[in-house]
Specification:
- The longest helix is centred in the first third of the chain and has 25 residues.
- It is built from 12 helices and 20 strands.
- Helix 5 packs parallel to helix 7.
């Protein structure tokens, strides 16, 4: 029998009615002749509510105990969903991440999956049951502690299960009908893509598109797991994320889509000595704080002063760690001043067709100019152009670029069923 792994996000299991609707879809998939394994997120805003509770108790919650707390949300969802499926006359067994054999690194709150031992899931499926797995969580084998996978962890869980079980497909259910050329909340005329390559999807996800998380796409590309992004609120065909097929174009358009990100901030280190090793010293300090850096710009130094300014972007919630690390090595780096800016937005244009088509950059920057959008930083790859602008101008910039590349749908406005995009 074909094996299908499905993943349902928080908006898909937000309440009892939603859970019953998801249960009916799973039962339909099972009765259509498939074996089914399901990864599920916490209901609605449960994770945020648990975070608020922890912060109400203490301003410095221990990472280990925080992971124990947060995994409760997915456990509630898996148990209720298994009950709902059984009520419909189909066998179902619920498993926590550790029970499902998800083995992770020890980093609480941001663990990575290193292996999956799916023996119990295989036994459940062979017995004719649907296996329901709590997403977002696993177990570190040495400490035997529960860990969480961080943002997008349930997507990654689903793809990892699909890879370990050699599933035919991993279906990621969200509250939109697939992957669109832009966020349909910002661009209602965004067009749904029928197919997209792992490479393009990875760049869109890394640039802020929230329908899939980068780690999920990375895992799928590594193990060649086909992903079908669909809505749990409709029966429409979604978007297939796969490797490029030789001799076949994934999409006719040059551009796959426009992504945006409001979650980053900018740090500018002013008056850095323009001598060999200064940048290395600066970014070594940032690395000690375990901070991921996105875009970097260094100004040309003035000959008279012999100093330069270096700006870089990073996740906004890591700014305190990064600034503390830089300030701790103030004397070694030798900078004059440090400034931060959290009112920025990142806009990215992604498309594999950029490699072989000229004029993309010119059209991109012309669209921003005509919309009156000022650019603060620029970075490029062979399939992506990203810029930083003011946060309040970001929505306008997205719409301007989307229209400039004729990405608007002719079929009317996109539907967002649950309102969150997850």
């Amino acid at each position: 029998m074909p094996l299908v792994v499905q993943k349902y996000g928080g908006s898909s299991v937000s309440d009892a009615e939603a859970i019953q609707r998801v249960a009916r879809r799973i039962v339909e998939t099972k009765r259509a002749g498939n074996d089914v394994v399901v990864a599920v997120s916490a209901m609605g805003d449960t994770t945020d509510d648990l975070l608020d509770l922890a912060n109400a108790v203490t301003d410095d919650p221990a990472p280990r105990e925080m992971d124990i707390l947060l995994t409760a949300g997915e456990r509630i969802s898996m148990a209720l969903l298994a009950m709902a499926i059984r009520h419909l006359g189909v066998g179902a067994q619920a498993f926590t991440g550790p029970q499902a054999g998800v083995i992770t690194t020890e980093h609480h709150g941001r663990a990575r999956i290193i292996d999956v031992a799916p023996g119990r899931l295989q036994k459940a499926v062979s017995d004719g049951d649907v296996a329901i797995v709590a997403g977002f969580q696993g177990l570190h084998p040495e400490t035997q502690d529960v860990t969480t996978l961080g943002r997008g962890g349930s997507d990654t869980t689903a793809v990892a299960l699909a890879a370990a079980l050699e599933a035919d497909v991993c279906e990621i259910y969200t509250d939109v009908d697939g992957v669109f050329t832009a966020d349909p909340r910002i661009v209602p005329s965004a067009r749904k893509l029928d197919r997209i390559s792992y490479e393009e999807m990875l760049d869109l996800a890394a640039s802020g598109a929230k329908v899939l998380m980068p780690r999920c796409v990375e895992y799928a590309r590594r193990f060649e797991v086909p992903i079908h992004v669909r809505s749990s609120f409709s029966g429409l065909e979604g978007t297939w994320v796969t490797g490029a097929v030789e001799g076949e174009d994934m999409e006719d358009p040059i551009i796959a889509g426009v992504a945006h990100d409001r979650s980053e901030a900018k740090i500018t280190v002013i008056g850095v000595p323009d001598v060999p090793g200064s940048a290395a010293r600066l970014f070594e300090a940032v690395a000690t704080a375990d901070v991921n850096i996105d875009m970097i710009v260094q100004n040309v130094s003035a000959t008279v002063t012999g100093v330069t300014d270096i700006s870089f972007t990073l996740p906004a919630d890591t700014v305190p760690r990064a600034t503390a690390a830089i300030e701790a090595d103030h004397a070694g780096i030798g900078y004059a001043e440090l400034s931060t800016d959290d009112a920025i937005g990142k806009l990215s244009l992604v498309g594999a067709g950029m490699r072989s088509n000229s004029g993309v950059s010119a059209k991109f920057f012309t669209a921003l100019r005509d919309a009156g959008i000022n650019i603060e930083m620029i970075t490029t790859s062979d399939i992506r152009i990203s810029v930083v602008t003011r946060a309040e101008k970001l929505d306008e910039a997205v719409r301007a670029v989307h229209s400039a590349f004729d990405l608007d749908s002719k079929d009317g406005e996109a539907v967002v069923y649950g309102g969150t995009g997850r």
